[in-house]
Amino acid sequence: MNLGVNSITNTPIGTTVKEQVKSPGEAQASFANVFKNAINDVNDLQNLSDKKTEALALGQINDLHDVMITAQKASITLEATVEIQRKVIDAYNEIMRMQV
Prior knowledge:
Its main location: other. This is Flagellar hook-basal body complex protein FliE. It comes from Ornithinibacillus bavariensis. It holds the Pfam family FliE. The structure is a single chain. The protein starts with 16 loop residues before the first helix and ends with a helix. The chain has helices spanning 17-20, 24-57, 64-97. The chain has one domain (22-97). Helix 2 packs antiparallel against helix 3 (64-97). Helices cover 72% and strands 0% of the residues. The relative contact order is 0.10. It is mostly helical. It is elongated, with a radius of gyration of 20 Å. It is built from three helices and no strands.
C-alpha cells in the first residue's frame, strides 16, 4: 500500500512557507487522491491474492509459499485499511461532539 510517503522530500533552506501552501481545493484533491490510491492498492492486492489462490487450486502454479505470502499481504493491508477507517470515523465523531 503506497500512501505517498516516498513523495515527501526535504524543504530547501531558502524556501518560504508561502511557496508550499496549497489552496483548500488543491489540498482536498491531494488528500482524496491519497485515499483513492491506497484503496486501489488494497483492491489490487486482494485481486492478485484471489488469482493466485485460484491458480493454485487449478494446479496452474505449485508455489504454495508465494500464494500464502500474497494472501497474508492482502489480509494485512485490508485489516490496516479497516483500522484506518475506524480511526477516521472516531475522529469525525469526536469533532462532531465538540461544542462551538
